[in-house]
Amino acid sequence: MSDPALPVAPVAPVTEEPPHILVVDDDTRILALLKRFLSERGFIVTAAADAAEARRQLAALRFDLLVVDVMMPGESGLELTRSIREDSDVPILILTAMDQPDDRVSGLESGADDYLAKPFDPRELVLRVNGILRRLRQAPDLPPAAPPEGPLPLGACVFDPHRQELLRGDEVVRLTTAETALLSTLAARAGEAISREDLAELTGVAGNPRAIDVQVTRLRKKIEADPRVPRHLQTVRGRGYMLRPG
Length: 246
Hints:
Layout: E1 20-24, H1 28-40, E2 44-48, H2 51-60, E3 65-69, H3 77-84, E4 92-96, H4 101-109, E5 114-117, H5 122-137, E6 152-154, E7 157-160, E8 165-168, E9 171-173, H6 177-188, H7 196-203, H8 210-223, E10 233-236, E11 240-243
Parallel strand pairs: 1-2, 1-3, 3-4, 4-5
Antiparallel strand pairs: 6-7, 7-8, 8-9, 10-11
Helix pairs in contact: 6-8, 7-8
């Protein structure tokens, strides 16, 4: 990581309470440097040396964003990210020394919102963090939509937008928070193509639009008879995604 004593990146935006960031890295030098650098730029920072400590912090505190190293002893950053994504949509920025395209895809497929390769300039890290937080606050340029009046049939499944439940027969299909938000958003505009960027804003899935692609892939596995040939959650080339009930 380059010397942080360079011209600084923009400071975190002033709000009633500064964003709280959890930094997870087993390299104590980087951990201390990031904690100091981010703190000096207006963030509240908590440090964790491994995934186990990160879990303890997540159980006790609310965070606005996580910065997670990939290569850690025991549970890796990717494994931690996948586990967090089971029940949380907190934005996650992955740090790793692996910078090949396949590594980037793996990071995003695990549920990360952004990816930064080591060595990196701390100023770029702050820009990435501020970018993710800014996208969370921005409202999409779409008119408001009301939930459907009743349940929507989706092949063998039925989605109840008011109870926000997906049913297959009498069985409730478990959805993560992100999947529920995505399905609810698409259901409110059934038959209308919505861009990845607007879906990210409407659902709170911040970061690279690739994160929406990952959520769509997961959701298709739960509602489609053949996720490879989706009938209900369709890709509209050049426009985004659309939900077709039936």
